[in-house]
C-alpha cells in the first residue's frame, strides 16, 4: 500500500502505527485544520484498524511556518489565539504546526512521537515548492508513505 499527497505550503502529516499494519497521510491546510483533520485521522485509524493513538509515530513534513504565514481576520477568527501572533493591524501569523500538533496530542498521540520538519516551504532555500511564494505557477511537493506488509 502506498499513499501519496501533493502540498505546496500546507502540512503533510504522516501517521505510522508500528504495531499494526496501518498508516495515514493527511493534507492539512488552514481549512482542514479548522475541520480537525489531524485528530480525525487518528480517530479513523483507531476505529478502522484498532490503532492505539499512544503508539502512533507522526511526522509533519516541510510546510509553511509561522514566520511566513500571515493571514487576515477572516482566517484568524477561526483559530484559538495560542496559534496566532499579531503582525500589524488585522494581520496575524498563523502557526498551523502547533494547531495540528495540538490536535494530534488531543487525539492521544504522545508529544514525543510528533516530529516536525524544520524547513519552511516559503523561506527555506531547499528548493521546496511554495504556493505563497510562487502563486499559481508553484509546483507541488509530493509526499509518499509506504506500508510494507510483514
TrEMBL record:
Belongs to the purine nucleoside phosphorylase YfiH/LACC1 family. SUPFAM superfamilies: CNF1/YfiH-like putative cysteine hydrolases. InterPro entries: Cu_polyphenol_OxRdtase, Cu_polyphenol_OxRdtase_sf, Cytotoxic_necrot_fac-like_cat. Keywords: Hydrolase, Metal-binding, Transferase, Zinc. This is Purine nucleoside phosphorylase. One of its GO terms (molecular function) is S-methyl-5-thioadenosine phosphorylase activity. It catalyses: S-methyl-5'-thioadenosine + phosphate = 5-(methylsulfanyl)-alpha-D-ribose 1-phosphate + adenine; adenosine + phosphate = alpha-D-ribose 1-phosphate + adenine; adenosine + H2O + H(+) = inosine + NH4(+); inosine + phosphate = alpha-D-ribose 1-phosphate + hypoxanthine. CDD domains: YfiH. Gene3D superfamilies: CNF1/YfiH-like putative cysteine hydrolases.
